[in-house]
């Protein structure tokens, strides 16, 4: 029943709603009671108690956004505006058939809503759906919407003017109206959803926390829940929230008797204090650099998320009943898992550093004996690119953790000491084996040696003499007696320059910068005539840079198109698609054969491991029987194509084999492109129709050959047979059109002429476009070049980190030029299994220097031009248990790896490829 003093307000609001057309008198059998709540502007809002209606309403599952994730979009924003809609729900109409259900009863009559009232269980979801659809293209770009609250954010005032105009125009077009008194514009910080948002980050709204400040001591469980509800809304600002609140949370349990103790009061006061003094939290910038500090105790889990030294969020929770029995190792690991799950949306695909005060967690990925719970958690950990680091002490205390960060020692070093070191011209360095900036070492500077050498350098002394005579040379004498060009130390010619450049380029502290970076670094301290040119020459001759640096120039070698064939199925290309799932028929690969003229293709399934004789029989039955013997075949250097049997077969048939340049798949670009299309079509078939991929392969071949091909301006089927294939799509057109006798022959010849014309035009376009992105690079016999290799390990190694191998090996002599863009190299005996003709894009010119020591024995590569690493032993065994099978695994140690780089591999695969690792019993 409504209080008597509010009856006048009720009557006034009903009249107001009637005058606006929001409600109408009702004769509905439904009828909910009414009450009043206070709004933000202190006015009263009429609210209907729809609890009975909500209980029988089917819930709308439309997701409401998480408030903490909404703020994550604001990373670099500096200007903000907030728009609050005028009675937002009342701007949405109710369906005619649902109007009677909104009826409510009052002292002044029975009414029903024509617009959406407050209090309906599905109202928030409906309104959120409406707002998201209206602002869909702007969400998370410069607009955040939460029900009827709209936040517009921008990086600059110029951007904000544009963004604000777009939002207001959208509201006008959708006929949604805002309440000006509740809107705020062009602010550098703004209250939004109970928080203060600014360019510095996000903080607690002081107006909201004011209620906490004056909150009386709870007298019942309901009052505790109410307090924890408000405090919990801001728990991301309070470090170890759950641990502090544990005494209060315990009182809310059913089996716990309400007994307000000193511990409860202390926890209550501490939470109030923490909320009132809550820090400003940084917003994630999306630029990586995330760190997590995690800790666990017998009462709860706690963690802190940081980025670039600033706190993003705190998180904590109390232990569940069964977790209280976990050993310490499992609790510490549970804290890490808790943090990764909670902040997964920040951390996925980012490099993360996790600091823990439990040393044994460092070895969680390599320990032999793990329980089922740990196995489950390790599967989750493998989804993240993370590094676990031991941090002594309580890592969950951020101030302590920060004081132990490697930079802390250097940042806290007294300024007087650093100034004294600089005045003494002594450089401060760190040994690589110690932590960053720890154990400072002092070394004498090069200045004394340079000053001494300046006295003996005739060119510098001549310039200084000119300066003393009054000429403007730019050289001056420093108070310490050294010659300077401005503030830069003049370095005499000779070994000292080489020493300076070596220190700036290949020391432990520089690690091979490029010539521009190195010059800009050196010119801040040193000077000599022709310094930029000399630095560039020094870097160009560096043997390590030549072997590991990526070339940032256009690809070498102009495009060399193959000649256009004269007739159908005379000139073919071939390739294999391997690594497919094994089907019930035993197939796990596809042989792709394409006619270079008509672009028609054949897709033949087979099993990897079948002999060349079986493949040859398939070739004779499927290709030669239907299309005749081809004139030439272009393929890569797969062992099946280079085998003696295959070469002998094609020689007897009169077919010429043309192999692509070594490790240059662009030579057979036609097959590569066809394979891409084939794989996409197989994926689509599997998703649409299910079943094994070879169940659909004949349909994929039909679809491919009957689809329009841009380079020939028609479908391959039409080029092959003179007309389109009869199919459900073009049934009538093909069926009614008939070609007989000479007419068919004439049209076929015309089609071939048209195809060759289209192909020539396509080749010309392709060559013109490709050559824009290429450059001419030529070598002469006798020159030395580096050979590009693939810096990855063998294909059998799954789930491991890539090895930091060099990009180029060599240098090797050029023996001769082969064709227009390929060269034959003189390879050492260790590479005798590698074909020695390479496309020019795989080569890099060697810049010699007398300091280079060349050793080809350091690197062994396989026929696929990959760094070859062979397993040297089995370290351990375990079984991976799946739902319906068990997979035996072995832990393998590899050559050229450190012991920590051993990997788990399938035992079956290792036995097949490396049988020597498994000696027979009795040997």
Automatic annotation (TrEMBL):
<keyword id="KW-0064">Aspartyl protease</keyword>
<dbReference type="GO" id="GO:0015074">
    <property type="term" value="P:DNA integration"/>
</dbReference>
<dbReference type="Pfam" id="PF17917">
    <property type="entry name" value="RT_RNaseH"/>
</dbReference>
<dbReference type="Pfam" id="PF24626">
    <property type="entry name" value="SH3_Tf2-1"/>
</dbReference>
<dbReference type="InterPro" id="IPR050951">
    <property type="entry name" value="Retrovirus_Pol_polyprotein"/>
</dbReference>
<keyword id="KW-0540">Nuclease</keyword>
<dbReference type="GO" id="GO:0003677">
    <property type="term" value="F:DNA binding"/>
</dbReference>
<dbReference type="InterPro" id="IPR041373">
    <property type="entry name" value="RT_RNaseH"/>
</dbReference>
<keyword id="KW-0233">DNA recombination</keyword>
<dbReference type="InterPro" id="IPR012337">
    <property type="entry name" value="RNaseH-like_sf"/>
</dbReference>
<dbReference type="GO" id="GO:0046872">
    <property type="term" value="F:metal ion binding"/>
</dbReference>
<keyword id="KW-0239">DNA-directed DNA polymerase</keyword>
<dbReference type="GO" id="GO:0006508">
    <property type="term" value="P:proteolysis"/>
</dbReference>
<dbReference type="InterPro" id="IPR056924">
    <property type="entry name" value="SH3_Tf2-1"/>
</dbReference>
<dbReference type="GO" id="GO:0004519">
    <property type="term" value="F:endonuclease activity"/>
</dbReference>
<protein>
    <recommendedName>
        <fullName>Reverse transcriptase</fullName>
    </recommendedName>
</protein>
<keyword id="KW-0479">Metal-binding</keyword>
<dbReference type="GO" id="GO:0003964">
    <property type="term" value="F:RNA-directed DNA polymerase activity"/>
</dbReference>
<keyword id="KW-0645">Protease</keyword>
<keyword id="KW-0695">RNA-directed DNA polymerase</keyword>
<dbReference type="InterPro" id="IPR043502">
    <property type="entry name" value="DNA/RNA_pol_sf"/>
</dbReference>
<dbReference type="GO" id="GO:0006310">
    <property type="term" value="P:DNA recombination"/>
</dbReference>
<keyword id="KW-0378">Hydrolase</keyword>
<keyword id="KW-0460">Magnesium</keyword>
<keyword id="KW-0229">DNA integration</keyword>
<dbReference type="Pfam" id="PF17921">
    <property type="entry name" value="Integrase_H2C2"/>
</dbReference>
<dbReference type="InterPro" id="IPR000477">
    <property type="entry name" value="RT_dom"/>
</dbReference>
<dbReference type="InterPro" id="IPR041588">
    <property type="entry name" value="Integrase_H2C2"/>
</dbReference>
<feature type="domain" description="Reverse transcriptase">
    <location>
        <begin position="18"/>
        <end position="197"/>
    </location>
</feature>
<dbReference type="GO" id="GO:0004190">
    <property type="term" value="F:aspartic-type endopeptidase activity"/>
</dbReference>
<keyword id="KW-0255">Endonuclease</keyword>
<keyword id="KW-0548">Nucleotidyltransferase</keyword>
<dbReference type="InterPro" id="IPR001584">
    <property type="entry name" value="Integrase_cat-core"/>
</dbReference>
<keyword id="KW-0238">DNA-binding</keyword>
<feature type="domain" description="Integrase catalytic">
    <location>
        <begin position="559"/>
        <end position="724"/>
    </location>
</feature>
<dbReference type="GO" id="GO:0003887">
    <property type="term" value="F:DNA-directed DNA polymerase activity"/>
</dbReference>
<dbReference type="Pfam" id="PF00078">
    <property type="entry name" value="RVT_1"/>
</dbReference>
<keyword id="KW-0808">Transferase</keyword>
<dbReference type="InterPro" id="IPR043128">
    <property type="entry name" value="Rev_trsase/Diguanyl_cyclase"/>
</dbReference>
<dbReference type="InterPro" id="IPR036397">
    <property type="entry name" value="RNaseH_sf"/>
</dbReference>
């Amino acid at each position: 029943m409504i209080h008597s003093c509010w009856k006048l307000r009720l009557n006034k609001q009903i009249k107001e709603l009637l005058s606006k057309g929001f409600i109408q008198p009702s004769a509905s059998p439904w009828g909910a009671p009414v009450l009043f709540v206070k709004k933000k502007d202190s006015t009263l809002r009429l609210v209907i108690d729809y609890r009975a209606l909500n209980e029988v309403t089917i819930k709308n599952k439309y997701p409401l956004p998480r408030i903490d994730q909404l703020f994550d979009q604001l990373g670099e924003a500096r200007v903000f505006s907030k728009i609050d809609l005028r009675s937002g729900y009342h701007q949405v109409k109710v369906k005619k058939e649902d109007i009677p259900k909104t009826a409510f009863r009052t002292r002044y009559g029975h009414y029903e809503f024509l617009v959406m009232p407050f209090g309906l269980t599905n109202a928030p979801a409906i309104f959120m759906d409406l707002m998201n659809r209206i602002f869909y293209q702007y969400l998370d770009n410069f607009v955040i919407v939460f029900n009827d609250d709209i936040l517009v954010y921008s990086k600059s005032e110029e951007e904000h003017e544009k963004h604000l105009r777009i939002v207001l125009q959208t509201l006008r077009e959708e006929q949604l109206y805002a309440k000006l008194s509740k809107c705020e514009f062009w602010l550098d910080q703004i209250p939004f959803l109970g928080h203060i948002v600014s360019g510095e980050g996000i903080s607690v709204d002081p107006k909201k926390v004011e209620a906490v400040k004056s909150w009386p001591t709870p007298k019942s469980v309901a009052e505790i829940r109410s307090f924890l509800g408000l405090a919990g809304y801001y728990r991301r600002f309070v470090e170890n929230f759950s641990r502090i609140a544990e005494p209060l949370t315990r009182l809310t349990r059913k089996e716990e008797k309400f007994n307000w103790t000193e511990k409860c009061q202390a926890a209550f006061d501490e939470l109030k204090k923490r909320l009132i003094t809550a820090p400003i939290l940084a917003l994630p910038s999306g630029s990586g650099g995330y760190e997590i500090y995690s800790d666990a105790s017998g009462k709860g889990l706690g963690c802190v998320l940081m980025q670039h030294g600033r706190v993003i969020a705190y998180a904590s929770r109390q232990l569940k009943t069964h977790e209280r029995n976990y050993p310490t190792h499992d609790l510490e690991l549970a804290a890490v898992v808790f943090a990764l799950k909670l902040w997964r949306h920040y951390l996925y695909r980012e490099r993360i550093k996790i600091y823990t005060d439990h040393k044994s967690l460092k070895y969680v990925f390599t320990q032999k004996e793990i329980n089922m719970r740990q196995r489950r958690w390790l599967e989750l950990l493998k989804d993240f690119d993370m590094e676990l680091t031991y941090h002594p002490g309580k890592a969950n205390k951020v101030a302590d953790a920060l004081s132990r960060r490697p930079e802390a020692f250097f940042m806290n070093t007294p300024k007087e000491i650093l100034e004294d070191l600089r005045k003494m011209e002594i450089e401060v360095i760190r040994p690589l084996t110690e932590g960053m900036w720890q154990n400072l070492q002092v070394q004498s500077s090069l200045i004394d040696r340079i000053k001494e050498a300046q006295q003996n350098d005739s060119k510098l002394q001549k310039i200084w003499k000119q300066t003393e005579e009054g000429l403007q040379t730019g050289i001056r004498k420093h108070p310490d007696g050294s010659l300077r060009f401005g503030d830069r130390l003049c370095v005499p010619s000779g070994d000292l320059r080489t020493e300076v450049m070596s220190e700036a380029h290949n020391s432990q502290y520089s690690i091979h910068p490029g010539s521009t970076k190195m010059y800009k670094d050196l010119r801040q301290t040193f000077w000599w005539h022709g310094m930029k040119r000399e630095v560039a020459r020094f870097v160009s001759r560096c043997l390590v840079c030549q072997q590991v640096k990526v070339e940032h120039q256009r690809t070498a070698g102009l495009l060399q198109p193959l000649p256009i064939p004269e007739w159908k199925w005379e000139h073919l290309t071939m390739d294999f698609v391997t690594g497919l799932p094994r089907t019930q028929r035993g197939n796990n690969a596809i042989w792709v054969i394409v006619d270079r003229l008509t672009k028609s293709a054949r897709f033949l399934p087979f099993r990897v491991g079948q002999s060349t004789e079986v493949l040859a029989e398939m070739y004779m039955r499927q290709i030669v029987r239907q299309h005749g013997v081809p004139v030439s075949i272009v393929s890569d250097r797969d062992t099946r194509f280079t085998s003696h049997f295959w070469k002998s077969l094609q020689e007897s048939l009169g077919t010429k084999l043309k192999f692509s340049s070594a490790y240059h798949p662009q030579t057979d670009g036609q097959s590569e492109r066809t394979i891409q299309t084939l794989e996409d079509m197989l994926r689509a078939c599997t998703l649409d129709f299910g079943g094994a991929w070879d169940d659909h392969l004949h349909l994929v071949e039909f679809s491919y050959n009957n689809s329009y091909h841009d380079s020939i301006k028609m479908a391959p089927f039409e080029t092959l047979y003179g007309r389109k294939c009869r199919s459900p799509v073009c049934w009538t057109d093909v069926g009614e059109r008939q070609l007989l006798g000479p007419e068919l022959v004439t049209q076929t010849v015309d089609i071939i002429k048209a195809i060759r014309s289209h192909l020539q035009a396509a080749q010309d376009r392709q060559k013109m476009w490709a050559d824009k992105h290429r450059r001419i690079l030529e070598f002469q016999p006798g020159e030395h070049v580096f050979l590009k290799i693939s810096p990855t390990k063998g294909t059998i190694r799954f789930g491991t980190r890539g090895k930091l191998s060099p990009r180029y090996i060599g240098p090797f002599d050029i023996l001769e030029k082969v064709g227009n863009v390929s060269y034959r190299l003189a390879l050492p005996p260790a590479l005798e299994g590698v074909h020695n003709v390479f496309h020019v894009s795989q080569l890099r010119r060697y810049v010699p220097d007398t300091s280079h020591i060349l050793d080809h024995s350091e690197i062994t590569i396989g026929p696929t031009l990959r760094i070859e690493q062979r397993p040297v032993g089995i370290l351990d065994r375990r079984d991976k248990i799946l739902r319906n099978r068990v997979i035996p695994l072995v832990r393998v140690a590899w050559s050229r790896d450190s012991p920590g780089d051993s990997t788990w591999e399938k035992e079956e695969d290792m036995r097949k490829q490396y049988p020597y690792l498994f000696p027979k019993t009795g040997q």
